[in-house]
Amino acid sequence: MKHILHMTALALAMTASAVVADNPVTALADLRVTDDRIDRPLEGFVWYPTADTQAVQTYHGNPVWQGIEAAKDADAIPGKYPLVVLSHGMYGNAMNQSWLADALVAEGFVVAAVHHPGTSTWMRDADQARQMWDRPRDVSRVIDHMLTDPAYANLIDDDKIYMAGHSLGGFTAVAQAGGRYDADGFEAFCDSHPAELVCGIFDRWQVARTPEDKVAMQADLSDDRIKGFAVFDLGGTQTFARESLAGIDEPMLIFGAPRDIQGLDLDIESRALVAALPMDQVTYLEPATLSHFDFLGVCTDKAEALLAEEEPDDVFVCQHGQAERAAEHAMIAAIVAASFR
C-alpha cells in the first residue's frame, strides 16, 4: 500500500502567509443557486473577504456548536480570489465546515457551500438520496453560479477553483476528481463485507438499483475546472472503479482520521484510496489524534452535557471537541490553504 506523508506540505502550511489586502475579516452571504434545476434547488452560504469590521456578529452557532464571527452581506474587498467549494457529509449541512471557510477567507479565498438535497440535515428525502450522482453535480452548479452571478463573478479567479469534502462529501470530491462508480465491483465488495457501513447506507438509499440509475451513477461526474481536492476522512472508496482512481490527474490532499470515535475503517477508506491513486498526486496525512467528527465545528462548553440529556446517542460528536478540536482545525486549515495556492 502507498501510505504517503508529504512533510513538505506541513512545512509549507506552517510557514505560508497569504498576501491579502487590508487584513480582511469574514463576510457571510446567503447563497441560492439560480439555474434550470427547479427540481433540485440549492441553498447555502458564501464566505468572502471584507474590510467591514463594524457589522461583525456571531453566525452558525447554537447551544452545541460554536459559531464564527462574520459581517453579513458586507462589501467585498475587490480582487481576484481562489474559490473553494465545500461538500458536507451524510445528513450534514453547509454550516458544518464554516470554521474552515472562516480560516480560508483569512488566507485570501472565497468559499461556498450548499445543503445537498436528500442527504442534508433538513432535507432527508429518500428519492433524492438515491440520486447520488447529483451530489457532484451540485458542486458544478455552485461553480457555474459563482462564475456568473454579478455579485461574485468579478471576485473569482477561474484558474484557481478547488473543492473540499468531508465523509460523504469526500466521496463527492473523488467523483468530481474523476472517480467512476463501479456497480459490479461495489456489489462484490458488499457481498464479502455485508456489515460495512457504506454498504448498508447505499442499500438503504437503493443507490444504483435499476439499470437507469446504474448508468447515471457510472457516468463521468468530474469537473475539470477544479484544480485540486481536499478529502476529509471519506466514506465510499470501495464504490469507485480502480482504473478510474488510477487516472486522476489533479492534486489530492487526503486526511485519514485514526481516532476511533464512531469512525470509518481507514484500511477500507482513506488508506485504500491513497493506494489506488497516482503516487505523484497524493498528499496523505493521518494525525494520531484526529477523529471523523473533528471536521465538524468546535463544540460549546455545555455541548456534551446537553447532548447527553437530549440526544445521548450523539454525544460522541463532541468528544475532544473543544480546545483539542480547535487545534486540529488550525492545522487542517493551514495545510488546506497551502495545498490550494
Automatic annotation (TrEMBL):
Molecular-function GO terms, alphabetical: 1-alkyl-2-acetylglycerophosphocholine esterase activity
Span of domain Serine aminopeptidase S33: 83-182
Keyword line: Hydrolase, Lipid degradation, Lipid metabolism, Signal
Span of the signal peptide: 1-21
Residues annotated as transmembrane: none
Highest taxon of source: Bacteria
GO annotation (BP), single: lipid catabolic process
PANTHER family (alphabetical): PLATELET-ACTIVATING FACTOR ACETYLHYDROLASE
Protein name, entry field: Serine aminopeptidase S33 domain-containing protein
